[in-house]
Design brief:
mainly alpha, 9 helices, 243 residues, single chain
Amino acid sequence: MSLERDRDDPAAGPIGRATGLVYWFVVIDLLVVLASLPGALPLMLLRPDTSNLPLVALMLLPVGPAVSAALFAWRDRDREPDQHPARHFWRGYRLNVLDVLRLWVPALALLTVLGVNAANLAAVGLPSSLGIALGVVALVVVLWTAHALVLASVFAFRTRDVARLGIYFVLSRPLVTLGVVSLLVVTAGLVVLVSDYVLGFVASLLTFWLWRNARPMVRDVEARFLTASSGAGGDRDEGAPAA
């Protein structure tokens, strides 16, 4: 039966599925870049200097909602594969943008403060070893942001609940957290060894990796915090994390 169905519908065969996946990667990549352009274009004009860190943070504001929309689209593809990635992306963008910015803006602000302080330790007479502690704090903030971004992308929780769950899963899901660390290492390696421009060409791969890595965390939330009626359709799932 499956062989006959594959003959009748080329998209159902292995070649069709592979082509469909490549199409998704290409479209999601283009959409992430497009949604990030308002900040990415002026960012290219900045010279690399620690004094520009606040401006860098400001120009990275569009990246959070763009990544969130990509995560939402990848979630939808897991549920029901189709050939409409743009529709899923823009629906996710519309649903998530405000909730994501409530998490993304404080995270960028905190990372900016940490970066400026680390860059000026010598100028204020503080030991350089303090930079290690600031680096550890910054890493924890980035890991929390990654978890919170995934949760805010697929669940309609309150901002404070997403923030608490993000902190909780940094510690309670070490393999997921290590997966984010691996993603950060690969991303940093691409920037150092190639160029930061390469991120625009692999944005869909990175968001796909982030989503696949986070699925155990998402399943945990679905099992523990979602209402019985949630989970249907393509919108974000609703629930109520315990206090």
